[in-house]
Amino acid sequence: MGKFLLILSVLGLMFLEIGTSKTPNDVMFWLASGSMLYQIIRSILIAFLLGQVLTNPPRHTWFRLTSGAVAIAITVWALQATISFIMPAMDTFAFLAGSIALLLAALERSFENPAKKSLARQTTLKNSFQS
Question: Which residues contact 81 (CB under 8 A, 6 or more apart)?
């Protein structure tokens, strides 16, 4: 389900990016902006989402931290721009959906080997009884 959410977010953002750059005056894209700033932010969000799709858990900690920071920054910016009536509605929904999917992927649980964890616990208990 996690990869599915990421892929849908990528498809939605790519649809907006291509549509607003090729046919900005089409009725379908009246609620989206074709400005360069929005195109750059869409590209950054798509790059991070594709990075999450193409890698398997457990991901490197720095990649997860960077992804989470980008997701939070885009979410705050999108909400602030929407509240001040600067950002169109379709961009708001696309940015929020992509940011939430990216943040959920960045907050993944670390996978630990239960046998390794159990072995470490047994060794600790064994050492404490020998003392």
Answer: 87, 92
Show pLDDT as tens, one digit a residue, over the chain (131 residues). 668 999 999 999 999 999 999 998 889 888 899 899 999 999 999 999 999 999 887 888 899 999 999 999 999 999 999 999 999 999 999 999 999 999 998 888 765 555 555 555 666 656 666 65
Q: How many C-alpha atoms does 32 have within 13 Å on its Cβ side?
A: 28
Token output for 53:
């799709």
On whether the CB atoms of residues 33 and 71 are closer than 8 A, the answer is no
Extract the tokens encoding 51: 């990075």
Reduced to 3 states (helix: H, G, I; strand: E, B; else coil), residue 66 is helix
Is residue 10 within 8 A of residue 95, CB to CB? The reply is no
Residue type for 29, please? Answer: F
Helices (H), 1-131: 2-22, 36-54, 61-83, 89-106, 114-130
Q: Which residue in this structure is represented by tokens 């072995």?
A: 119
- Total residue length of the chain: 131
Q: What is the pTM for the complete model shown?
A: 0.78
